[in-house]
Each structure stands twice: as structure tokens, then as C-alpha cells.
């Protein structure tokens, strides 16, 4: 069986940057203890490694670590000047040996001690490499791991220093350790700084602090750092600082307390917190002794995680995890095995690994008869590739609880013969062992589902079952169906490619007792209507709904749907027409209380931004407790009429979009500079759906200033998500995406906050951020 293992490393992404005092010993500080390492020396000297994409595609490439200690450069020896680079900050882990499907396929040709895999953050594919000797392989494996660890453990100042150093090395084209005016000018263009800065030769050469004493017409690293600081002074932060600083130079403890109490809405805890902030973020020891905070320290705090828009106390596990499973939203994946589209896409174990590492707690497996009585997983009746069922289960065992200790639901779409179902059951028992929950927790038929807390470290099988937990029936089941049979029985839309002919013609399906007995708390059943569910349904029965069926039920009987979801789990999935693996809006389903809202995790965009945003809280554990009015079995809540619920208290959200910092360049054309605008979107119940945007700023992605306020009314704050989107304005065509950040309304910190932007893929893009001032008040 295939088991893909990664070196355990911190999952913390590189954090935000702040402009503060930069050491003149920049290079020495950052490279200390690294360049003397023998593994790093091998990487810097360079190695010829075999890049492997498949059994037939294996080509030599020359790899080396550049002087900045972060950039890995590689090229073909026959490619002339052409080359590629990537940063160590893009890497998540290194796998050693045959720990990828590609390297396993060539295991007989290349021994494990020569092979390793570089795993990237987000959805970027892995890089499989083969060294010429075991020693060389170890040098790269251990060296890259050390560099990953270093980047993950940098403090805010070190990250800024490294970022500035990177830019210096990129701009120093002739590698003489200096930058002439032309190199500085070109660098500023790449930094998205507009022409008024790029033509500032006077600032470059004749600033008193920047005097070119050697009259060489160039800047060394220390001068470039100071020059960079001059360009990145934040007037908008300085103005806030001045409002509370009596002498304009520092914030005394009482002044910082006042700022925290008045602007950051911290109340009584502001006194203690002010002391903690000075100790943590103030770079000057002199200021610390005075119990004061300088402008550098103030900006460092505002740019930190404590100064971010997301409440720090909601980042860790903070919710009650002892309630029934039906009381939680559960991060869920559709056709998890696919990396691409639904018709021709590749099936891969990597897709399961990526989903589980994102906190996904419900994965799907479509099982079909394979050769030699070995079941396979793929999208039936399509050209998608096949992987072995046993390899999927082995991967699940290895990765199920890396990101979260709470239960994983394994949703089985079963198309196998009885004989191969027995093989599936055998693999599940043998590979998962005690991880698989096969018995009732207390030996009693439950009246409500067990909690995530009770099921920690357990895998639940969701599939058809012969009879119920109360009794056993014969082996022919006539009323229990698999997930997408709802399409055949209930939907008017075109039949999904997930429906086999056997399902559509309504014939009885055979089920093996061995597989059936493994299903305990998630028995897949046909949905017979809300009235039937109220009088006959069991808490362990779960039905699946296509997106169109779910929306139809929501429109016809919204309150009934919410009530149903207080007692039982329901799963929704994308329309069979979404062959491109696009997604539906999950917010529509969450507003009904649906727990398992399955999305195509491989497809980036608005829908996955919302999913990532909702599950960013509570320790990213994949479970988020539903609001209390969606856990009460007698609830009268209707998403279409939020004002009729008990305890209705609408809120006003006011967002002053102040400025942006170092927004990434999206158009790589020479001389192109972004024209950024900010759009704020509210996603929630129908009355809360809204969006508004700022004007665009011409030719400034480096430090645009808007100072525009956007106002919203939130009727159901408990279900609302807020999405910040930055785009490059284009009057002639569609705006280009720059970055976004999405979070639950209930996780917003009011006051002056930074929003650290994410790429379309959901990965951090430091130091890009927005600076905002947020006010939340009751609607009067």
C-alpha cells in the first residue's frame, strides 16, 4: 500500500511584515549559522538532479541555492539563458524516498535513498527529484528542511529584513553588491512604485542621510535599506500615532492604554494589554525601560497577528465540541480524488492529502471493481484516471489527523460487486484498525449523534447499510441508496455522470454484510420528505442533496429544512453539469443548517474562499458550531425572514478602507503598475448579501491611500462572512484579481486593523495588506 509521509514541520504560514529598524548587519544576521552548514554549502555549490514527471519523463536539471539563502534556481544545461526559480517560502515540506505516486512508479529504476519530493503550499504540484548519490540526496533533503524551519521561525523583523534583502539581490543585476540609479529605478518599478518615485534621482543621490560619500553613483545594501525605509514611511499610521502621543515621538503607557480602549474597543483589559504590547513589539530597549512605545513599535503591533482583523482568541480551538455532530458545519470535499475536471482529470492520492491538510473532515471515495479483485477509485464512466482503493485508505490513515484530531467521515460511493465490497471491508479493517469506528460508543442505539469530542481520532464510514442499528435485514436492500441517486430519483436536471445505469433504472443493489457492518453513525438513505423524517427518521441516517434539490427545498420549506438539520446530517454536492469542477455557493446551504457542504477543493475561487473563511476559526479543525437558533429542534428560523427569529438584533458594519501596502503585480508587462480598488462583500442570508467598493487609485500598488468608508447592515451576524477583495481596475475589460481575505463576521476585531491578503490559491502573499478602521454597532 502507498503511504505518503512528510517531515513534521510547523504549519504556520509566513506572517505579515512591518517597516521598522533594519540592522546594518542585514546579510550577516540572516545568514548566520546557515551558510556554514555543510548541507547548505552543497546546495549553494549546485547539483545535477533528475526532475521526474512520469515514468517516461525524466530529465536532468541543474539546481542551486542562490546567495540570498531563500531562492532555488534551476535550468536545463541546454536551455541557454532560460531558467526557473522558486522560493523556500513556497515550500511546505520535504518527503524522503518513494513518497509520491510518480516516484513509486519508478521505484525499480531508482532506489529510495536517491529520491525526494518537494511539497509546495496550496494547490501547486509537487516537484519529484532524483539525486546522483545518497549523500547528495541527503544534502538537499536536510538542507531544504533547515531552510523551511528557518523561514517558519523568523520573527517580524527578520521577515522584513529578508524581504528587503531579496529585492536588493534581484535588483543587483551585475552582482557587484551595489545598486546604481538605473538598478534602483528598475527595482522600484517592480515594487509597483509610481513614476514620481522612480524618477527621484535627487532623493537617491542627494538626501543628506544618503550622501554618496564614495561618489560611485551607487548604493550598498545598508544605504538601500535606508532608502527603502524612506519610501515606505506610513503617513496614515503616523497620523493615528500622533492623535495619542503628546510629544509626537512615543506613546507612554497611559496613552497606549487610551488608544487600545477608545480605538481598539478593548475596555478594561487595555491596561494589561498595553504593557504586554510594549514588551512584545517595541524594538527600542530605551523605550521599553520608559514604559513607552515608539512609532516603529506601534506599526509593528498594528501589522502583527494581534493587530490583524481576525480575533486572536478565535484562531485557536475555542468552541464547545461536546454537542451532536448535527450541530456543526463540517468542512467537506466532493470527489476528493480528482485534481482537475470531472471528465478527464487525474485521480491522485495527492488530492486527498491536500484536502485533509486544509482541514477537510469529509472526503469522498467512488469505488468500482478493479482488476485482480482489487477495487479502484475514479469517476465512473469517464476518462479520469484510476487509483487503488487500498492506497486511498492507506493515505487516509497517514493524513487524517495531521491538521485536526476530530473525526473524519469517509463517504463511500459504492459501485462494486459484493465480492469486491468484501475486499473493501477487509482493507478498511486491516489498514485503519482501531481508527475505524465500527461499534456504538455505549452499546446503545443513539437518540442523538455522538459529538466530535467523543469521536476524536476516529474515522466514520458513510455508506448504505443493511437495515438499521436496531436490527438486521436480508442482504438485498431496496430503500437505501448512495449519495447521487437523489439525482436520478428527485432532480429534474440532467443526470449526473456520477449515476451509473444500474442506479438510474431503479434496480436493487446488492450489499455485502462485511461492508454494511462497518457503517454505524452515517447510514445513507433516500430522503422521503420532512414529514416522514420527523416521524420515522433515525439520527444516524443521512441523505444527500444535489445543489438544485437543496435550493428547491430551501425555497419551499426553509424552516423545515433548518429543523431537519438540527437532528440529522445532510450532505449537499455540486450539480452533475459542473464537469469543469466549478463550485456552487456554500453559503446558501449553510444558511439552511446543512452540515456537509461538499465542494471541489481543487478549484480556487469565491466558493473555496468562503469555505476557507468559515473554517479559518476554531483552530482550523474542520468543525464550526452552528448558531444556537440552528441547534434548537423547535426553531422557527427561516433564512428568508431573519427578522422573525427570537433575539433578532441587526448590526451596522462600517469599514473605513484607509490604505494598501505592497500589492502584488498581476500584469507582468514592462512598465505596468496596478490601479487597485477594494471591494467588500457580505455573504450570508439573502437579506445580508451585499457588496460595495472604493474608487481605484491610478498607478500605485506600493502604498495606495483611499480613505473611503463602506457601510453595511447585517441581519444575521452569526451566519455572515465578510470578504475583502483587491482588484486591478481595467476600464476596457474585466478587473484582474490581486488578493483577498475572507473571515466570519463574528471573528472581526473592531478598530484599526491590517488585513493580510491571500492569493487566489489561498496562500499568504506577504507583505501585501490593507489597513482599515472597523466599527460595529447596533442598528438603531
Automatic annotation (TrEMBL):
Where does the C2 domain start and stop, copy by copy?
A: 631-759
Cofactor(s) needed by this chain? Ca(2+)
Keywords of the record, alphabetical order, are: Calcium, Cytoplasm, Endoplasmic reticulum, Glycoprotein, Hydrolase, Lipid degradation, Lipid metabolism, Membrane, Metal-binding, Nucleus, Repeat, Transducer
> Where in the numbering of this chain does the EF-hand domain appear?
159-194
Its localization reads:
Cytoplasm; Endoplasmic reticulum; Membrane; Nucleus
Transmembrane annotation, as ranges: none
**Domain called PI-PLC Y-box: residue spans:** 515-631
Show the Pfam families listed in the entry.
Answer: C2, EF-hand_like, PH, PI-PLC-X, PI-PLC-Y
GO CC: one term? nucleus
Note describing how the cofactor binds: Binds 3 Ca(2+) ions per subunit. Two of the Ca(2+) ions are bound to the C2 domain.
Q: Where does substrate bind?
A: 462, 464, 544, 571
Q: What is this protein called?
A: Phosphoinositide phospholipase C
The chemistry this enzyme catalyses reads: a 1,2-diacyl-sn-glycero-3-phospho-(1D-myo-inositol-4,5-bisphosphate) + H2O = 1D-myo-inositol 1,4,5-trisphosphate + a 1,2-diacyl-sn-glycerol + H(+); a 1,2-diacyl-sn-glycero-3-phospho-(1D-myo-inositol) + H2O = 1D-myo-inositol 1-phosphate + a 1,2-diacyl-sn-glycerol + H(+)
GO MF term (any one): phosphatidylinositol-4,5-bisphosphate phospholipase C activity
Q: How does it sit in the membrane?
A: Peripheral membrane protein
Please indicate if the UniProt record lists Ion transport as a keyword: no
Q: Which residues bind Ca(2+) 3?
A: 335, 364, 366, 413
Residues the entry annotates as binding Ca(2+) 4: 673, 675, 699
Residue positions annotated to bind Ca(2+) 5 are 728-730
Amino acid at each position: 500500500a502507498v503511504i505518503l509521509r512528510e517531515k513534521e514541520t510547523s504549519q504556520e504560514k509566513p506572517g505579515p511584515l512591518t517597516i521598522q529598524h533594519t540592522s546594518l548587519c542585514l546579510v550577516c544576521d540572516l545568514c548566520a549559522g546557515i551558510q556554514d552548514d555543510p548541507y547548505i554549502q552543497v546546495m549553494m555549490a549546485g547539483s545535477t538532479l533528475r526532475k521526474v514527471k512520469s515514468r517516461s519523463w525524466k530529465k536532468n536539471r541543474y539546481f542551486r541555492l542562490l546567495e540570498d539563502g531563500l531562492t532555488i534556481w534551476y535550468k536545463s544545461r541546454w536551455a541557454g539563458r532560460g531558467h526557473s526559480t522558486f522560493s523556500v517560502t513556497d515550500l511546505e515540506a520535504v518527503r524522503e524516498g518513494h513518497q509520491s505516486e510518480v516516484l513509486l512508479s519508478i521505484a525499480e529504476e531508482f532506489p529510495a535513498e536517491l529520491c525526494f519530493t518537494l511539497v509546495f503550499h496550496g494547490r501547486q504540484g509537487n516537484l519529484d527529484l532524483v539525486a546522483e548519490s545518497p549523500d547528495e540526496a541527503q544534502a538537499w533533503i536536510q538542507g531544504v528542511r533547515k531552510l523551511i524551519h528557518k523561514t517558519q521561525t523568523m520573527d517580524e523583523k527578520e521577515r522584513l529584513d529578508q524581504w528587503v534583502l531579496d529585492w536588493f539581490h534581484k535588483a543587483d543585476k551585475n552582482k557587484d553588491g551595489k545598486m546604481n540609479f538605473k538598478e534602483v529605478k528598475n527595482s522600484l518599478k517592480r515594487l509597483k512604485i509610481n513614476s514620481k518615485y522612480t524618477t527621484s534621482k535627487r532623493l537617491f543621490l542627494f538626501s543628506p542621510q544618503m550622501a554618496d560619500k564614495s561618489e560611485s553613483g551607487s548604493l550598498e545594501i545598508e544605504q538601500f535599506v535606508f532608502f527603502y525605509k524612506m519610501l515606505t514611511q506610513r503617513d496614515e499610521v503616523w497620523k493615528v500615532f500622533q492623535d495619542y502621543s503628546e510629544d509626537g515621538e512615543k506613546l507612554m503607557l497611559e496613552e497606549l492604554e487610551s488608544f487600545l480602549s477608545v480605538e481598539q474597543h478593548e475596555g478594561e483589559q487595555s491596561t494589561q494589554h498595553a504593557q504586554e504590547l510594549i514588551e512584545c513589539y517595541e524594538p527600542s530597549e530605551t523605550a521599553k525601560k520608559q514604559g513607552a512605545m515608539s512609532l516603529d513599535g506601534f506599526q509593528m503591533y498594528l501589522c502583527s497577528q494581534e493587530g490583524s482583523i481576525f480575533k486572536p482568541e478565535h484562531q485557536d480551538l475555542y468552541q464547545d465540541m461536546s454537542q451532536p455532530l448535527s450541530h456543526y458545519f463540517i468542512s467537506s470535499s466532493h470527489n476528493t480524488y480528482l485534481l482537475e475536471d470531472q471528465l478527464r482529470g487525474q485521480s491522485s492520492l495527492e488530492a486527498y492529502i491536500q484536502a485533509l491538510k486544509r482541514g477537510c473532515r469529509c472526503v469522498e471515495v467512488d469505488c468500482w471493481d478493479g482488476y485482480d479483485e482489487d477495487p479502484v477509485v475514479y469517476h465512473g464512466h469517464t476518462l479520469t484516471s484510476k487509483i487503488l482503493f487500498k492506497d486511498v485508505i492507506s493515505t487516509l490513515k497517514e493524513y487524517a489527523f495531521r491538521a485536526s484530531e476530530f473525526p473524519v467521515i469517509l463517504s463511500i460511493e459504492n459501485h462494486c460487486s459484493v465480492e469486491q465490497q468484501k475486499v473493501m471491508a477487509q482493507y478498511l479493517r486491516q489498514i485503519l484498525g482501531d481508527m475505524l469506528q465500527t461499534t456504538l460508543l455505549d452499546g446503545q442505539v443513539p437518540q442523538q449523534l455522538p459529538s466530535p469530542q467523543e469521536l476524536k481520532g476516529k474515522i466514520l464510514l458513510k455508506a448504505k447499510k443493511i437495515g438499521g442499528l436496531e436490527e438486521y435485514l436480508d442482504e438485498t436492500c431496496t430503500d437505501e441508496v448512495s449519495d447521487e441517486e437523489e439525482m436520478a430519483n428527485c432532480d429534474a436536471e440532467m443526470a449526473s455522470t456520477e449515476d451509473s445505469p444500474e442506479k438510474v433504472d431503479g434496480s436493487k443493489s446488492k450489499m455485502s454484510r462485511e461492508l454494511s457492518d462497518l457503517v454505524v453513525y452515517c447510514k445513507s438513505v433516500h430522503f422521503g420528505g420532512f414529514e416522514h423524517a420527523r416521524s420515522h427518521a433515525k439520527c444516524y441516517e443521512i441523505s444527500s442533496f444535489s445543489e438544485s434539490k437543496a435550493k428547491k427545498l430551501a425555497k419551499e420549506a426553509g424552516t423545515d429544512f433548518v429543523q431537519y438539520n438540527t437532528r440529522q446530517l445532510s450532505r449537499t454536492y455540486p450539480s452533475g453539469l459542473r464537469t469543469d469542477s466549478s463550485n456552487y455557493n456554500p453559503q446558501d446551504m449553510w444558511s439552511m443548517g446543512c452540515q456537509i457542504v461538499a465542494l471541489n477543493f481543487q478549484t480556487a475561487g469565491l466558493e473555496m474562499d468562503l469555505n476557507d473563511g468559515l473554517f479559518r476559526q476554531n483552530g482550523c479543525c474542520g468543525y464550526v458550531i452552528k448558531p444556537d437558533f440552528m441547534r434548537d429542534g423547535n426553531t422557527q428560523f427561516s433564512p428568508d425572514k431573519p427578522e422573525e427569529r427570537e433575539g433578532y438584533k441587526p448590526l451596522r458594519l462600517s469599514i473605513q478602507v484607509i490604505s494598501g501596502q505592497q500589492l502584488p503585480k498581476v500584469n507582468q508587462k514592462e512598465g505596468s503598475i496596478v490601479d487597485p480598488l477594494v471591494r467588500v462583500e457580505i455573504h450570508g442570508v439573502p437579506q445580508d448579501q451585499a457588496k460595495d467598493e472604493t474608487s481605484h487609485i491610478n498607478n500605485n500598488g506600493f502604498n495606495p491611500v483611499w480613505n473611503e468608508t463602506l457601510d453595511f447592515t447585517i441581519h444575521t451576524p452569526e451566519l455572515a462572512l465578510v470578504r475583502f477583495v483587491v482588484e486591478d481596475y481595467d476600464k476596457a475589460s474585466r478587473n484582474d484579481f490581486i488578493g483577498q481575505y475572507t473571515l466570519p463576521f463574528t471573528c472581526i476585531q473592531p478598530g484599526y486593523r491590517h488585513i493580510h491578503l491571500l492569493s487566489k490559491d489561498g496562500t499568504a502573499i506577504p507583505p501585501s495588506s490593507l489597513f482599515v478602521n472597523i466599527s460595529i454597532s447596533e442598528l438603531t
